[in-house]
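C-alpha cells please, single chain.
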Amino acid sequence: MAILTREEAKRIIDKVLSYSNCDELNVSLGGGRTGNIRYARNTVSTAGITDDLSLAVTAVYGKKSGSATINEFDDESLEKTVRRAEEIAKLAPENPEFLPALGPQQYLESQGFANATANISAEDRAKLAIDSIQPCIDGGLTAAGYLEDSAGFSAIGNTKGLFAYNRSTSVDFSVTVRTNDGRGSGYVSKDYNDSSKLNSGAATSVAIQKAKASAEAQAIEPGKYTVILEPLAASNLLGGIVNQMNARNADEGRSFLSKQGGGTRLGEKLFDERVNIYSDPTHPEVPVSPWTGDGLPRKKMTWIENGVVKNMVYSRYWAEKNGVEPIPSPGAIIMEGGNDSLADLIRSTERGVLVTRFWYIRSVDPQTLLVTGLTRDGTFFIENGQIKFPVKNF
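Here you go.
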C-alpha cells in the first residue's frame, strides 16, 4: 500500500529539496490505495484496486515558476525532476500575482483516517455489494450502484522550512434502484471516513422505498410550493453557495456577495436566522486536510451565523492586496438549522413538494445564485401534511 509514514515522506521531500539550485523549491508528495466495485442490472460488472505514489516539484526564480511530476523515486530520477522544473521556470513568464512560499506553520490534527477503511478487502466490497443487490432481486427491482474506498496520505515541504503531513480515508457509496417497468426510481448516497459506519443494505432499502413509491408519477401545475429538500438535495445547492463566497469575486462584482456600486455584503443578513454554516477540519464526521495546497492552515471558521455572512475566502494574494489575513477555502462545510425531522417537516407542510436530489445542476448567474437543473429519483407532492403521490420530474 502506497501510504508513507510522516518520517518516510519527510525523508523523500528533504532529499528533493537538497537538489535545489533555484530561489525557492516547493514539493508535494502523495499516494494511497483506491478500491472499487460497480454493479448494474443486479450484477457486478467491474471491480479493481490501484496503488499510486507521485511527487510534484515547483521551482521558482524571482516571479517565474515551473513544475514537473514523477512517480519514480530513485535519486537520479528525483534530481532529474528538480532540474526539469528549474528549466521550465527559467522559460516561464513572470507571474504578477506571485507570492513567496510560506515558512513553517502550525496545523490542527485532523481525524480523517480510519483503520477499518484502510483495511477493506475485495471480500468486504463484494459483501457490501451483495447486501445492496439481494434485496432488489428479492423485490423484483433493478439496482445499479458504485462503491469506492480510498486510504492515502499527502505531504508538502519547501526550502523555507515548511512541512505538513496528513492521512485520510473515505468510502463513497451510491445506488439507483428502478422498478422493472422503468417507471419508478429511487436513489441513496452515503459518504464516510470510517467504512464501519456504512450499511449498504439499510441505505438501499431507502432507495427501494422511493422506487416503489414513485412508479405512478403525475404532473402538477407550475406555481409556488413549499419545497422540502432532503440532505442530498440541499447539499447540491449549498456547495454552490459556499464556493461563491470568494472575497475577490465579491470585490470585483462577480458574486452574490457583491454590492451594486462597489463593496461586498459581508455582515449582511442574507438568510433565515436559523441558518448557520461553518467549517472545521477536525470535525469527527467530515474531517478534511488541515492545510490547503499552498500550506495555509485551516481552522474552524464560521461562514454564516444566524443568517448573517460572517467571512469570505481570501487567497494569500488578495488578502495581502487588501491588508487582511488570508482565509483558506473550507474543504467541507457543516450546516446547522432546526431540529425537526423529515417527517416533522412533511407534517407541517400544507401544500408542497419533497425533493430527493437534484441532477445536472449548472450555474446560470453567479451574481444571483441562479442555477438550472433537474429533480431526480423520487419527487413527491405533499398535501395537508401527507405525501399524496409521486410527481413527474421538474
